[in-house]
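Task: sequence in, structure out. Protein: Zn(2)-C6 fungal-type domain-containing protein.
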Amino acid sequence: MSTKHTMKKRKACQACTHAKAKCSPFENRSDLCYRCQRLNKQCMFENAAVRKGRPKQRSRVKQLEERVESLVNLLTANGQSAEVLTSLTTSNGSTNDTSVDEREETASSEVLSSGPDTPGVHSNDDAAGFDAIVAGLLSHERAGRLLNTFRNSFAWTFPFVIIPKSATVDSLRRDTPFLFLSIMAVMTYETPSVQHILGDEFKAQIASRIICQSQKSLEILQGLLVHAAWYHCFFRIRSQQLAIILQLCVAMIQDLGLSKNPKDKTRNLSLAEGKPQRSANEKRAFLGTYYLLSAFAQAWRKRTMMNYTKYMEQCCRSFADEPVVPTDMLVWPFIHLSELMCRVNNFFSYDDIENAEARGEIELDMSMNNFRSELERIRDAVPTTVKQNTTLTLQIYLLQMWIHESSLHCSLWSHHPLPSPHKTYSSLSTLRIRTLYLSLNAMKAYLNSLLETPQDALYHFAFQAWSGWFYASILACKLVFLQENEPLSPRHSHSVQQTPGLLPEYFGPGAPHDFYSLGGDVESRNMWDPVSVVIETGAQHLFNLLLEKLKFTMDDPGNNKDGDRDPLFGIACVQRMFLAGFERRLKKWSEKNCNSHPSPRTTDGGGMSAREAAMSHEDQVAAGWNVTGPLPDPMNFGTLQLRSENRFDYTLLGSFGQQNTSEDWMWNMMMEDFTMPAM
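Result:
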């Protein structure tokens, strides 16, 4: 056959090709199209290009075959059977593309299921997580009791992770093992050794699931929130990890998109597709993250890592209007109190007092009145069914202390950015003294609320309640020893120091009835007397009562290992540090001043003198505490020894300040930083 007859023509003529127009044959003619006939143009069809030589083998087929061969070699090198892949190899170069793709998918799935672990691929055991029941640490019956306790009691102190009544131990182990492990780690406080093991396993799961496997789910976020809420149970004085865990919660919120309104049309549609609104659990987790971040910011005097938004307000309002469970009634007041706490911190710049913009009595008075009014509005709006909630009451007292803390910072009461070296304060204004009284009253109310709490219920409190206890204790010490932070006038530095600010005439009819009448002239009343403040406020007595309250954490002389300590043992140790430092400072001040001036007494003659109030040794002996013994590392709670007769050797912590190398070190650190030690 000649080339002329085998040569094919293009389907479009040259004119239509250049014009990029449609070319259709005119009346079934092969040499003329409609367009050329209409435009009266010459219609020419060029010859089609001819591919020379033998068609080459398709490169994709070859690449897929090479990949299959590499998988076979990988299995063979690791001692695995390659029978699943040998049938997939072929030497036929004309293999169909579809069949090759199917073989590649099958081979890959076989390798992932039977081959060795590779980066990004984890075994089923890792995915299932650690099971405390399978490990023999918990029985099924005990796990059920602990789960019910968490669901019925612990949720009232942290209502942001709710376990429905329909959920069982088996369903949680199967569906949410990470959350189940987190709950069991918190609830095993009666067996500290088991709690210690579960806490370490939970941290290992954090590393495996979040860091290695990059898992992102609501279950992971809820587990992190439970662990962070009761982080004081896993207190390690030298390894602070709470900030890291909270940052992981923030990252999980961002990855899951829980901080954005799903109805927002401007955001990525893929996140909100088919989901016009958040579930109740998602909104609780989102708000719970903000709640813990606010508590952390208050305890360590930092700016919060998450700002309050209108979408948060929308979520809060949804729980207030339509609560799903009874504890949802606490969500709205908890979040609003936390938001107010953050605004108070930002306004007074408690995290950076030196650069605070709010200064002067007038501005401070107006701002405190506004904050107090807002706090009252929140308290009045609390539903009647939850008004008696202890955690809510503690948070209100904490906020009252937080608002009036400004009375402790003398620089805020002057219009100068920083106190001048020559600027002195020889007296306290009536407004500032009234603010000090309000702060003191809130401190006493907070500590008394803790004292009224049953012993078993102390374990229910989330870490915000205990950070508030620490803050109230520091506030009490700051109030008593206010003169240590005040630049006093030289002409009053050696005068008799009294406390006129606590006299009834300074407060009017709202003053308490147990105030003391103190002698002295007008000038002497311009100063602040620590001993008189201790007598009037009962701060030292409150510290002793709190220590007595926590005595049960030290009652087992055989538990000397750190892993066997009660989860509240560290809190008891810090409370003892407060009391020891408080008594030493008070005794030093009393010995320095009582020689030249008489000690104040109560009006009825039945109260303690200043020297009696400062006698820490006699107080401890009378209370039945052992006050002698050697001194270990004051920051290592695990080395503390317990003595006979169920008495804790307090000098293991309290007397460390008597040594020259570490005298008052812990006290000074807490008083200067105004924050908790690293947790």
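The chain has a mean pLDDT of 75.
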